[in-house]
Amino acid sequence: MSMLADTIEHRPIEQCAPDELLGALFAQAPGFMAVTRGAEHRYILVNEEYRRLAGRDPSGSTMAEALPELVGQGIVAMLDRVLDTGKAFVSRDFRVRLNVAGAWEERVLDFAAQPIRRADGSFEDILCFGYDVTERVNQHLRATRLQQELKRAAQAAAMGTMASTLAHELNQPLAAAAAYLAAARRASERKLCEAASETIALAEAQVQRAGDIIRRTRMLLTEARPRRERAELRSMIDDALEVMRASGNLEDIAVSVALEDPDVALDVDRVQIEQVLLNALRNASEAMARSPEKKLAIEACRAGSSVRLTITDSGGGLASNIDPFEAFQSASGGLGIGLSISRTIIEAHGGTISLDDEGGRGAALTLTLPL
């Protein structure tokens, strides 16, 4: 193919006599090859590989006649520029959609369009040649997806081991703390004021909640099925905000909540989804620690057959060198597993989660959950 291109480039086309060897090379070339003529780009030479790629024989027809689907994809306009400028067009991983026997196919090409100089210095013909690299590109994409799946599986295994260790180490002291708090509540019912009793009851509830979170995180990471129940989104948001306020993490932060449908309910594991919300709110609070203006907006609306929830903060935005969903990376000195576990939880519910920078004016975490 290189020899053919050199021959055509350095000899005027009018002086090129038919040559059986070059004809055989052209016809049997492993890549696709074609020569078009004139401003209408009429095919005057086409090899077998080009016919196979196109799914038809365009010989004698213009490109617009033989392959009309290419016109709207800018191919004809590109060939016009090649003739006008006399400069070759070269592209790797060039994507094109072809209508082959009524079925649309996307192909990926390594492709070049070389103008052929005539004796008078003008350009009328174009040699189009290249390779169909669709399978190579698809194999690369499959390999990349497999690597990502293996990486996430390894991370899940590591988090599962950590969750099992935490469950083993923390369940006993949590159970003891819950027992002590229950005893204190019973003893204080008559001796302490109502506010103190309520505080003890709240502490007891949070200890029990911590145990639930550990058990359900362990269950999630060991691929056990979540405990689904019908839960109102507003109620889960309110519970998460209540925990944040009780821990002092919302001080000086202006919080707004806007739900398109205040009564929307989801079929979810309530504890796990509240864990995701708490993690998102805690991250937002930490991100605004040094911000002069502290605003936290929680918005939810329907998105087709799902609910889309967005939590936006007015912090410093996202660090460019950290993948927030990468397990064991942390911008704040923590364990760095919060968002990774959140993604596992949301995807186990059939949803999606993403985190986007708001142009240096904060960050927005968006998650979707099926209705």
From TrEMBL:
SUPFAM superfamilies listed in its UniProt record: ATPase domain of HSP90 chaperone/DNA topoisomerase II/histidine kinase (SSF55874), Homodimeric domain of signal transducing histidine kinase (SSF47384), PYP-like sensor domain (PAS domain) (SSF55785)
Top-level taxon of origin: Bacteria
Keyword list, A-Z: ATP-binding, Kinase, Nucleotide-binding, Phosphoprotein, Transferase, Two-component regulatory system
Membrane-spanning intervals of the chain: none
PROSITE patterns from the UniProt entry: HIS_KIN
Segments forming domain Histidine kinase: 165-371
Catalysed reactions listed for this entry: ATP + protein L-histidine = ADP + protein N-phospho-L-histidine
Name of protein: histidine kinase
